[in-house]
Specification:
Layout (H helix, E strand, L loop, with lengths): L3 H10 L2 E6 L5 H16 L3 E5 L17 E2 L11 E5 L9 H6 L5 E6 L10 E4 L6 H12 L4 H15 L10 H11 L5 H9 L4 H11 L3 E2 L5 E6 L1 H7 L10 H5 L6 E7 L5 E7 L5 H6 L4 E2 L3 E6 L3 H16 L6
Parallel strand pairs: 1-2, 1-4, 2-3, 4-5, 5-6, 8-9
Antiparallel strand pairs: 7-8, 9-10, 10-12, 11-12
The protein binds guanosine-5'-monophosphate and manganese (II) ion.
Length: 327
């Protein structure tokens, strides 16, 4: 595993870079990517960002986000260096993109997922980091460059998002120190919060109503689940990205240890999100289904309709609950 200086040396010794991050990019993925983009640009590098999925509406306030290219719009020669951010496996940037975006020299993998498979030629993977944005913050600091207001806005968004607004167990002293330093750059924390969490269209609230009606709960109350169908998205004029955060409503139930939210995809498959409260490692559960993530937040795709996917995930969770291993 590389240290910060080794990664900075790779940056220093090359001229052209492509940056990418995981499909359905979130606040940390985009925050880390855009801050690194700005940093490399300031070093005089040629940099392009290419993401499989579009930037969700709520993150379109982030500086430089207009620079993000779709795979179709990405033109030109292969980059010398591909930097993949916040993705535990290369195919998380999208199957097609992971096959076509081949760097001439090397791939740099910067991430904090416990399930990371270290696919890079250079890997800066810090599982203790609460977010990839925290790692990018440290990289810029190690270089001795200023953070500045724009990069601070990107990185703070990432730290805020991945710590669940400083509520999750990864809200370490280090994460708070990074946040404090970023706030010193004169960003408005209440405005960032509002832009990310309080700009919800009415359709999303209607969708929440529909999804909450599907609640299921195990007889002992320790597992709760929700299902979001294509029909619900159609009816409320929403998409799958609008379910973000819904899972917290069922994790917050007093008896619940594991919350599961399954969304129906267009092709008959399902996308699952899992959250745990204090002792079950949901990263291990989704690993059985080819997914990944962290101990308390993880996800996977399952080639089955919602009901069946929920049944499989509940079964796997129940097995672990009957034999809990403290993590
Ligand atoms: P979410 O449930 O919010 O989509 O994701 C929670 C965590 O699990 C994030 O760190 C995310 O990157 C990871 N994750 C979600 N879905 C998948 C998946 O299909 N595969 C992998 N490897 N990780 C996932
Ligand atoms: Mn992250």
């Amino acid at each position: 595993m590389e240290d910060y200086q080794a990664i900075l040396q790779v940056f220093d010794q090359h001229q052209s870079f492509a940056l990418s991050t995981h499909i359905n990019p979130d606040g940390d993925a985009l925050g880390a990517e855009l801050a690194l983009y700005s940093f490399l640009k300031d070093l005089g590098k040629q940099v392009k960002i290419v993401n499989t999925d579009a930037t969700p509406r709520i993150y379109q306030f982030l500086p430089f986000c207009d620079e993000i290219l779709t795979p179709d719009a990405y033109q030109g020669d292969s980059p010398e260096i591909l930097v993949v951010l916040d993705a535990g496996m290369l195919n998380r940037i999208g199957e097609d993109l992971s096959r076509t975006l081949i760097p001439i020299k090397a791939t740099v993998n910067i991430d904090h997922h416990a399930t990371a498979d270290l696919f890079g030629d250079y890997n800066l993977v810090e599982v203790e980091a609460a977010s990839t944005s925290e790692i990018i913050y440290r990289l810029i600091r190690q270089h001795g460059s200023p953070i500045g207001k724009e990069r601070a806005l990107c990185l703070y968004t990432g730290v805020m998002f991945d710590t669940g607004c400083f509520r999750y167990s990864n809200s370490t002293p280090a994460a708070h120190r990074v946040a404090a330093d970023l706030i010193e750059e004169d960003i408005s924390v209440d405005e960032v919060y509002r832009l990310v969490y309080e700009t919800v269209p009415i359709g999303t609230v209607h969708l929440l109503g529909e999804v909450l009606k599907t609640i299921g709960i195990a007889p002992d109350g320790k597992i709760a689940w929700l299902c979001a169908t294509q029909e619900m998205f159609r009816k409320t004029g929403t998409t799958r990205e609008d379910v973000d955060g819904f899972i917290n409503h069922i994790r917050s139930i007093d008896s619940v240890e594991v919350a599961i939210l399954v969304s129906e995809l267009e092709d008959g498959k399902s996308k699952a999100s899992l959250r745990s409260k204090s002792f079950i490692d949901v990263g291990e559960i989704v690993a059985e289904f080819g997914g990944g993530g962290h101990q308390r937040a993880a996800g996977c795709e399952i080639e089955a309709p919602c009901d069946e996917a929920i049944a499989q995930l509940v079964e796997s969770t129940q097995r672990r609950l009957s034999n809990p291993k403290s993590v």
